[in-house]
Amino acid sequence: MKALHKSGRKEAGCNGAGLNKPLRSRGWARLALLLLAVLLALPVASPPAAAQEPLPRRNLFDYLFGGPRYERDDRYEQPPPYSRRRYDRDGSIIDMRPRPRRSTGRAAAPRPVQPMVSAAPEPVAKIDNAKQVLVVGDFMAGGIGSELETAFATAPGVAITERSDGSSGLVREDHFDWPGELPAMLDEVKPAVVVVMLGANDRQQMTIGNTKEKFRSDAWFKEYERRVTRLVSIVTSRKLPLLWVGLPSFQSPTATADAVTLNAIYRNQVEKAGGEFVDIWEGFVDEDGKFVITGSDVNGQQVRLRGSDGITFTKAGKQKLAFYVEKLARRHLGEMASPDVVKLDGSNLPALSSLPASPGQAVPTHPISLSDPELDGGKDLLGAAPLPPVLVETPRDKLVRRGELAPAPVGRVDDYRVPAVSAATR
């Protein structure tokens, strides 16, 4: 039994030793493969020039054994901004590097489109006999006067005189009496054209004698029409061109309806007296005839024309308002509105180089008058002398004088002459 036990243990020991050899070789192989995989997974150090290459992705061993994390190096990822140097007049370098923007966390609001503002023309000196344009009225007339000065700044033959009162009208004569003040203004300025714009402040109660009439009553309209007629007659009785500017639309629908009614009174009385009514309504409404704050300016650009109160005008609105008046005023001003009008006096006359240097020297040529009729070859008008006789009569003369018609050419359709018969055909 002991022998049997020993022999069995020896066999088992022998068999165990034989089995451990392949197990050990397999373990070393696995370890070698593991080390090879780890070496392949390690990142290879690259120079800064290759830092912009795509970064390697993490593999399974990195996730299992905590491999390194690959992060971008901002020092090599984003190159410094390129900037061109600019030099100032004194030779110093102007820094053109872009400034970093601050993040506000929300999108910036779009900036409104700013209209192109043209540079104001350089004003020129007015000549002594420049034609005056007198602008009178309320605050809207004041805007017309200031923009007309800009429009005629380069015309030395036109001067603008603005006499306006912002709170005035035809209702409150106790504040400013236009029929009483206008004659003195006409005598002082002696205008060639008179521009009137009133009515924006007249939508209120009117005092007639000892009674007070409410706006839009029959008595109110009757008295208001009489006052408009009186003011118009002051200008037209002096044979002066009158340009009465109508009211525009307003943001309030009630005020717009009142402006339509007042414009009808202005147009009727002004045109009846021989003046001109300047209709500006279409310039400040949309296609449906409604009030607009933003619209086309004189250059066709979309700009803000009216103030936030829905009554006043912006700078662009005043320019458009004056544009309507300027077109009609130029017709009355004629050549004086041109910028080519100059003042000729002793300071700017051209030099007369053809005259002799000394007063005692004789003029080599005989003076000729520009109005001498002999300059064109004679002093008789055309037709005063009989016409020279015609030696050869034309077909027209033969037909008119003697009734003879010239024979038609041979072969023409109206040649009715019988051709002569030759001897060979007989």
TrEMBL record:
Residues 71-117, 353-377 are annotated as: Disordered. The lineage of its organism: Bacteria, Pseudomonadati, Pseudomonadota, Alphaproteobacteria, Hyphomicrobiales. It holds the Pfam family DUF459. Signal peptide: none annotated. Residues 85-98 have a biased composition (Basic and acidic residues). GO terms for molecular function: hydrolase activity, acting on ester bonds. It comes from the Bacteria. It comes from Neorhizobium galegae bv. orientalis str. HAMBI 540. This is Uncharacterized protein. InterPro entries: DUF459, SGNH_hydro_sf.
